[in-house]
Write a structure and sequence with these properties.
Two copies of one chain form a homodimer. Chain A has about 210 residues and is mostly helical. Chain A folds into two domains: about 45 residues, Homeodomain-like (Arc Repressor Mutant, subunit A, Orthogonal Bundle); about 130 residues, Tetracycline Repressor, domain 2, CATH 1.10.357.10. Chain A is globular and about 55 Å long. The interface between A and B is large, with 51 and 51 residues.
Chain lengths: ~210, ~210
Amino acid sequence: MELEPEPMVRRGRPRSEAADGRIADAARELLLDRGYDQFSVDEVAVRAGVAKTTLYRRWPTKDHLVVAVVARMQDDVPVEYRGDVRADLTRYLNAIVDGLHRMRLAGRPSTSGDSSAGVVAEVAAAAARHADIGAAVHAMFLRRNVLVLRLIEQARDAGELSDGVDAEVLFDQLAGALYYRLLITGAPIDAAYVDRLVAGALRGTSA
Amino acid sequence: MELEPEPMVRRGRPRSEAADGRIADAARELLLDRGYDQFSVDEVAVRAGVAKTTLYRRWPTKDHLVVAVVARMQDDVPVEYRGDVRADLTRYLNAIVDGLHRMRLAGRPSTSGDSSAGVVAEVAAAAARHADIGAAVHAMFLRRNVLVLRLIEQARDAGELSDGVDAEVLFDQLAGALYYRLLITGAPIDAAYVDRLVAGALRGTSA
C-alpha cells in the first residue's frame, strides 16, 4: 500500500517537494526535541504523514536520516565574503557554534550546564562505524567547507590575507578548534572564544 | 582516568604495581588487537590473570577501561621544549598522529585504507553519553594538554614566539585540526600535513 508520491515521479511528474519539506522539517524537529536516542525513522514518517517505506528507501537507517538533518542545518549557515575577512569568519564561526550547541543540546533542556557533545558525537561515531555513513558525512562537510575555502581565497585575492596563506590549514584550524573543544576537551565554545580564535588564526595571515 | 589505589592501600599494604602493569598491558593489547566492539573487561581480566571483580571495581564499564588505555598511550607521548618550537611541536604532533592512527586502526588490518576514526570516535561518543566518562576524558586531556601549553609558553619566554601569543588558542588550532580531519571530514593526517599545519599556525606567532 503506497501512500507516497513515488509513482508520480515515474510518470514524469515533479517529485513532491512538499513531502520532502515535511519530512525534513519533521526529522529536524524530532531530533532537536527528542535527541539521538529517541529519534526514529518511524516517528518521522508519522509526523510527516508519509509511508515508512518512503523514508527507508531514501534513508535506510536512523543514522542516514540524522546526517540528512545535519546537512540541512549546515545549509542554513550563511557563508559570504563581504570584504572584511575577520568579521566574515567570525560571523560564520558563530553560526557554527550556534548549530553545534543546538545539536549537542538536542533532546535535553537548553539550560543543560554539562559539556556533552550530544548528537555531534553520535554523528562522528556513526561515521566511524559505517563506511556509507562516513562517506555521507565526509561528502557533506566537503560540500559545505569548500564555501569557506572560497571565502578565504576571496579575502586573499582582495589583498586582505597574504598570498602564501594555506586556506585549507587555516580553515582546519578554525573549525577544528571548535570541534576539538566540543568533542574532546569539553572546553566551552562561545562568542568570546570565537573572537580569540579568529584573532589567533589571522595574526600571521594578514597581507 | 587515574589508576586508583586498590582497597589494599587502606590496610597499608603497597599496591600491586605488577598487577597494574599486567592489567594495563593486557587492556592495551586487547584493544589494539580486537578493536572497540570486541574489547571486554572480562577478557582483560583473563589475559591479565586477575579477578574480574578487581577490574570492575576500578573500571565499572568497558568505556572506563578504554579511557584508561587511551590515557596511558597519551602518557607515552613525549612533550618537551628543546629550544626549537617548530621542531618541538612537529615532533609532538607527529606522535599524536601516530597514536590516532593506532587507535583508529585498532581491531582492523593496518593496511586498512579507509578513513574511519575507529576507537577515537567511540571514546568521543562515550564521553558524550556518560557524564562520568566525559569527566574522565576531559580530565585526561586537561592533564596532558597543560604540558603542551607549557611548551608554548616556554617558547614564548625564550623569545621564539611573540609575547601576545594565545597559547590555548594556538594549541587548540594544532590539535583541533588533526582531530577535526580524523573525526569529521575524513581528510588524511600525516607528516606532510603536520608540516603544513605547524607552518600555518606559527606564521603569525613568531617573535
